Amino acid sequence: MVYVLIKHTVEDFSKWKPGFDAHASVRKESGCKGGMLFRTSEDPNGVVVIFEWDTIENARKFIESPELKKKMEEVGVISKPDIFFLDKLEDIAF
Prior knowledge:
Blueprint: E1 2-9, H1 13-22, H2 24-29, E2 32-39, E3 46-53, H3 56-63, H4 66-75, E4 82-87
């Protein structure tokens, strides 16, 4: 599996979240297997998402799509996102 980590700032989390949720079916159709959503401790409008994707090709195609850029603008993303494509090496347990 491939993971995608995205960090960006939104104008208003409470307005952004419904748009993010509504886009779930598009992510799923594009190969997304789910993920985790975080807000930064310092800023309630600082958002970090870690998605699990079926292939790197599908992840890149989705992330680089003009449709995603448009959707992000519509839901109030106000910063350029930091995006990282990650390969999982191992689980760490204590």
